[in-house]
Amino acid sequence: MPREADQRREAILELAHTTGLASVEELSLRFDVTPSTIRRDLARLQQAGSLARTYGGAMAINGRPESSLRERFGEAYEAKRGLARWAAGQVVTGESLLLDAGTSTGALAHELRRMGPLRVSTVGLTALQELAGLEDVEVECLGGILRPVSLGFVGPVTEAALERRTFDRTFLGADGVTAEDGICEADERQTRLKELMMRRSAHVYVLAHAAKLGRRPFHAWAPLPDACTLVTDESATQADVAAFTRRGIEVVVVDSTGQRRS
């Protein structure tokens, strides 16, 4: 019996690391034990410093740091290239674009090097590096406070710049994305900025490879508007996609060459 309890707690901890929050009721059903047993498990994990408890019996991961941009470059590399190629295919010459910080939008910026004329505004150093020095692409850095871990700008200066502009298309990244709560990030300044970016654009795209779908690694959220497009790769399951389509959100599934599969 103690061995079984230890295995269940290890499984709970692994579940928390991969999907973020889970309620007592969800865990009770998943492991076929009573809610009181789950509460005891959570209490033990809390005492060990592995988890922090939240209102309603949910749990939050302690000590799981945000991945650095360098760490993310090798993550789902081929999938991100496919997302970027499809996204670049939506862009029309002469448009004004807004690019988020991150590796997926950095890959998009690389694809945009062959296009033009364009005006590209960005809050990410990765996109700036890709587009710097091109004659046919006017590049605007929105500035603000630089987050070293993501190499993205946030804060009131960035927000003030956005308030005075509109864009034809906005392309966003995400640490996680769910149909219910939207885009998940480590910092509330990031999610506040993403909300504003979505409001200032005629067309909104969220670039998220399949491993990001349904993930809740942090506690800051930017709700998705109904009129947006989620772009993911072909390893996404039908269940992953269905959660978004039920909400009325368009989902585009692409392969590594950027060809649409659904």
Automatic annotation (TrEMBL):
SMART domains: DeoRC (SM01134), HTH_DEOR (SM00420). Keywords: DNA-binding, Transcription, Transcription regulation. InterPro entries: Carb_Metab_HTH_regulators, DeoR-like_C, DeoR_HTH, NagB/RpiA_transferase-like, WH-like_DNA-bd_sf, WH_DNA-bd_sf. PROSITE patterns: HTH_DEOR_2. Residues 5-60 form the HTH deoR-type domain. Pfam families: DeoRC (PF00455), HTH_DeoR (PF08220). One of its GO terms (molecular function) is DNA-binding transcription factor activity. This is DeoR/GlpR family DNA-binding transcription regulator. It comes from Nocardioides bruguierae.
